[in-house]
Structure formats: structure tokens, C-alpha cells
Write a structure and sequence with these properties.
The protein is α+β, with helices and mostly antiparallel strands. It is built from six helices and 21 strands.
């Protein structure tokens, strides 16, 4: 049948019909609950056919022929504060004013906004009242983003919440990815809000002692799930994964991982960058600023000089489960200290930074047959400390101290002269278990912790 004839028949058959109040919104909500791309397309066509039969025509101006409007834009606001007019008005106002300071603005994703902002959800969270705002946009080629997604209709998603610094409601983060709608915010960035999606979503606040993770399935209500990480959780340790099956404790596969970005970084950028002349904040490098490509400090106190220090250290740390399987980035220090020990074993000292966390010192002890015997977990790195590396070794094997560019000596009591053993030198020293103090150059003098 020709399409014109089909249109005539449909109009004739529905000439006396009028859609009941709320009919279009109900159909849209049904399409949202199914939420697969093919079914959304079918639902949109059903809506258009029904409305056309009643003489009502809907037009999305200038949309590419291959796109379908997001049904969520027609849904009523959800959440326990959905009827708070002040919060809804503030959310829309802060969304509009905040986009000009977003780190995504330089990517051109706000250049062709379509329709009005829609508050998808408004409610209470552990970090105070918050609102999820959505608005559609057409993407165009942009030098900073490329053109692979040009012409796509995307739903932008942002969160308006309280800035912990001044307690004012403002846009604290926004996203334009196809699966946008996952936010990390609030004091210490401990609150996570995820917009409902097709399948299960799992949450982990961070690795436990052996580097593995415990995963919890998120429960959704009113279109979102809100979860609070424990006090002391580092923002970079939090993971959210959307996949059919829960991740295993040691799962390091990136499939389904939602790339959380702490709102603190977004707000810092918005407050300082003006017209976005800089890129979005990168992960902080908290390692000691030592060495070139790799600074090797070999001590010759006992036994042979170790080789392949970098590979030995990295392999031992990884096999011991001391790295985070879900970390986006793991950085190893630019330096290593290696030495033989009095009992015939060897030691390699280095540092490891996981994600955006502080870097930490580790000492790997190797048996004479080169197998790993023990790994000592040292202090968190403080680059400003007088002596940033000081590790006590087990079994009475002494201490390893290091500071690049410094001449280190030690003494076993406060009345003896300072000793620089032949196996030491600038940068690092192996101190016997009887040592009492270590000195950096001509001072300061640091007591060894017993």
C-alpha cells in the first residue's frame, strides 16, 4: 500500500478519536521503562501515529533524521523534592549559568542546545538537596573533540548540588557521554548518585587490604540510586560498574566502568579557569619528584648488586595484590633503592601511587634464590618531609633511608661520630638495627623510630 493511501486510511479510521489527557506522557513513560533503542524508536512512532490520527502533529525542529528524542525529557520530575518549586527553579537557573564555566564547554557540546532544561530528579542526599538536570544538544565537529559523533542528538546530564566550600547550590558536574548520569560529589566526594539504566549497577568504595574489592549491587528508586562511601574513603578509589554480572573481587576489566570524576575537581576548574583556557584537571602526581627516567640507588653493604630492579619491584607488588585492580592509573616511583642485607637476603625499595591517592613506600625482600620473601608496607609519601623515605626492615635487618641529592650518615648513639658506610653514599643509606639517628648532610638529625 502506498504511504499516502495508508495515511488516508489511518486518518479516516481515527477521525472521531481524541487522545485522553496524559496519553502521550504515559506512552513515553512506557517507552522509558523498556528503554532499549529499538523499542524507544517504536514507541516514538506509535506516539506520532496516534497523535497524527487525532489531528495533532509534533515536530522536533531541525533534528537529524536518524535521531529520536529522549523520552525522559517528557517525564515528570521524580524524587522526594520533585514538588519543591524553589529547588526546581534553582536547578534550572544554576544549570544555565554553570555551563559557561564547565570543563566540557571547550568541546563545543553546549553550542547547539535543543529545548528547555528538564529536572529529571530532585531529592535529598547525604550531601544535601540535589537535582539531576537534563537537556538535549546536537553535536557538531569541534577541534578539541573531533567529528566522530557529529550530528548526534545527545542528552546532557548535570547535577546541581551544594558546594561543600560555600554551601551554595550550583552545577557541580556535567556529562555528555551517551550513558551520562553518574556523579560523585559532596563533602570529600563521598556521595555517589547514579541515574537508572538498562541493567544492574555495582558499587565499590575501595580496595581492601589485599587489593581486592567488595562489590554491592545498587538499588534504584525514583529513577536514581544514591550511595555514601565510608568516611576516609579516597575519591579516586570509588568504582561504579554497570554490567550484567557482578565483578569478581580481583576483577580489573574495564567493561561497564562508569568514569567518575569528583565534583571537587570540577568546582576548582570552574572557579579558576575563566574561559576554559586549560584542560580539565588531570590526575595529581603525588610521587617524589626524583630521578630522570628511573633513578637507581644501589648500596653495596652486603651481597651482590641486584639487576632488573624495576621489573622485580613492579612484579612483586602486583603479584602481592597491593595494587588496585580497578584503578584507572597506577604509577610507580621514578627511583629505586637496592641493597643486600646482613642475613643474605636483598631489598628493593620504591613507591606506588594508585589512582589519585597519595603515593606509598614499599620494600620488597628477596631470598638468595630471587623469590619474594616479604613485602614491607611503609609510610605514605610526604614530599615536604625532611627525610621522605625511611623504612624499617624486619628481622633486625636495619633501616633504609633515602633523600635524593643529600649525603646521609648515621650513628648508633648520640655521643658517637656520624658514620657513612662504604656501601652508602649520596641519596641513600642502609642503617644497622642498632642505629639511633640519621643525619641529612650537616643537619637536621632525625631519631629513628623504634
Amino acid at each position: 500500500m502506498e504511504h499516502l493511501e495508508l495515511t488516508r486510511v489511518l486518518r479516516s479510521a481515527t477521525a472521531d478519536l481524541e487522545p485522553r489527557p496524559g496519553f502521550a506522557a504515559e506512552v513515553v513513560r512506557g517507552g522509558r521503562r523498556r528503554r532499549t533503542r529499538n523499542r524507544i524508536t517504536v514507541a516514538a512512532l506509535v506516539i506520532l501515529t496516534a497523535l497524527a490520527g487525532a489531528g495533532i502533529w509534533v515536530q522536533w525542529q531541525n533534528l537529524p533524521a536518524s535521531t529520536v528524542a529522549d523520552p525522559r525529557m517528557a517525564e515528570p520530575t521524580r524524587g522526594d523534592l520533585a514538588t519543591d518549586p524553589d529547588l526546581l527553579a534553582t536547578a534550572v537557573r544554576e544549570w544555565r549559568s554553570g555551563l559557561s564555566r564547565s570543563w566540557n564547554a571547550r568541546l563545543g557540546v553546549f553550542d547547539d542546545l535543543r529545548g528547555a532544561p528538564h529536572v529529571y530528579w530532585a531529592g535529598r542526599t547525604p550531601a544535601g538537596p540535589a537535582a539531576v538536570v537534563m537537556q538535549q544538544t546536537i553535536l557538531h565537529p569541534n577541534p578539541a573533540r573531533g567529528s566522530a559523533d557529529a550530528g548526534e542528538l545527545r542528552t546532557l546530564a548535570g547535577l546541581v548540588a551544594m558546594d561543600p566550600m560555600d554551601r551554595n547550590l550550583k552545577l557541580v558536574t556535567d556529562q555528555f557521554a551517551p550513558d551520562a548520569g553518574y556523579f560523585q560529589f559532596g563533602p570529600a566526594d563521598r556521595t555517589v548518585l547514579v541515574v537508572a539504566r538498562d541493567g544492574p549497577v555495582y558499587f565499590s568504595a575501595g580496595p581492601i587490604a589485599d587489593g581486592s574489592r567488595t562489590w554491592t549491587g545498587l538499588a534504584f528508586a525514583e529513577g536514581v540510586s544514591v550511595v555514601q562511601a565510608p568516611e576516609g574513603t579516597h575519591p579516586a578509589a570509588v568504582r561504579v560498574v554497570a554490567r550484567a554480572d557482578p565483578p569478581a573481587p580481583d576483577d580489573d576489566h574495564p567493561d561497564g566502568q562508569l568514569p567518575l570524576k569528583p565534583a571537587t575537581n570540577y568546582l576548582e576548574y570552574a572557579a579558576t579557569s575563566g574561559r576554559f583556557t586549560a584542560d580539565a584537571p588531570a590526575m595529581r602526581d603525588n610521587r617524589l619528584p626524583w630521578g630522570g627516567p628511573l633513578r637507581l640507588m644501589r648500596l653495596h653493604e652486603h651481597g651482590p648488586v641486584l639487576t632488573d630492579l624495576d621489573a622485580r619491584f613492579i612484579d612483586a607488588i602486583g603479584q602481592a595484590g597491593l595494587t588496585d585492580p580497578g584503578a584507572k592509573t597506577t604509577l610507580f616511583g621514578r627511583w629505586r633503592v637496592a641493597t643486600g642485607l646482613p642475613d643474605g637476603r636483598s631489598a628493593i625499595v620504591g613507591e606506588v601511587q594508585i589512582g589519585d591517592n597519595r603515593s606509598r613506600i614499599y620494600a620488597v625482600l628477596l631470598r638468595p634464590d630471587d623469590t619474594v620473601d616479604w613485602i614491607v608496607t611503609g609510610d605514605w609519601v610526604d614530599p615536604t618531609a625532611e627525610l621522605p623515605v625511611l623504612v624499617k626492615l624486619p628481622d633486625g635487618q636495619g633501616w633504609i633511608a633515602a633523600k635524593q641529592g643529600s649525603y646521609l650518615t648515621y650513628r648508633v648513639n648520640r655521643t658517637e661520630t656520624w658514620t657513612q658506610p662504604a656501601g652508602g653514599g649520596p641519596d641513600a643509606v642502609l642503617i644497622p638495627a642498632t642505629g639511633r639517628q640519621v643525619r641529612i648532610g650537616d643537619g637536621p638529625e632525625i631519631d629513628l623510630r623504634r
